[in-house]
Write a structure and sequence with these properties.
The protein is an all-alpha fold and 161 residues long. Helices cover 77% and strands 0% of the residues. It is built from 6 helices and no strands. α4 packs antiparallel against α6.
Length: 161
């Protein structure tokens, strides 16, 4: 899902060569793919475990998935924002979508970091590798989220004026 977010960023090297419209479509396709994997993972884990959502990893993960459902709906309002202009200003729907996206992404990535410390990973990886994974994930979060946060701030400013 990180790349689905980055495809909209001007800082992304390979997405500079595609049009804005193509980037929006690619964002949509990659997010659908990531959402499908997310749902499939939840279903598999739900069926294979007796207790659910007791750990910080599970709680953050299911919270991210819950926000993801609202995020998907808000994505449609952004996609059809010009047609829905009578109900909501396009900048408002984009701001809501951006805020939900940032929240969902950060919660999901933090859940991933807690997942690095699950028993089955600890069985196969040493703490140095797990710490490296956590640090690299933090760097990826920061790089990926810079542009959407800047965009959100600008959207909030333009709604306020």
């Amino acid at each position: 899902m990180s790349e689905a977010i980055m495809v909209l960023s001007e800082e992304n090297v390979w997405s500079r060569i595609i049009s804005r419209r193509t980037g929006n479509h690619l964002h949509w396709y990659l997010q659908c793919l990531g959402t499908s994997f997310n749902i499939a993972g939840i279903v598999v884990l739900f069926k294979s475990h007796e207790t659910h959502f007791k750990s910080i990893h599970g709680i953050l993960g299911i919270s991210s998935a819950a926000i993801l459902s609202f995020l998907s709906l808000s994505g449609f309002t952004v996609l059809f924002s010009v047609k829905l202009n009578n109900l909501m200003r396009p900048i408002v729907s984009k701001c809501i979508h951006n805020f939900l996206g940032i929240t969902c992404y950060i919660l999901g990535m933090i859940a991933l970091c807690f997942g690095y410390r699950k028993k089955w990973i600890l069985k196969y990886a040493d703490s140095g590798l797990i710490n490296l994974g956590t640090i690299l994930t933090g760097i990826i979060i920061f790089i990926t989220i810079m542009r959407p946060v800047r965009s959100l701030v600008n959207q909030i400013k333009s709604i306020s004026y």
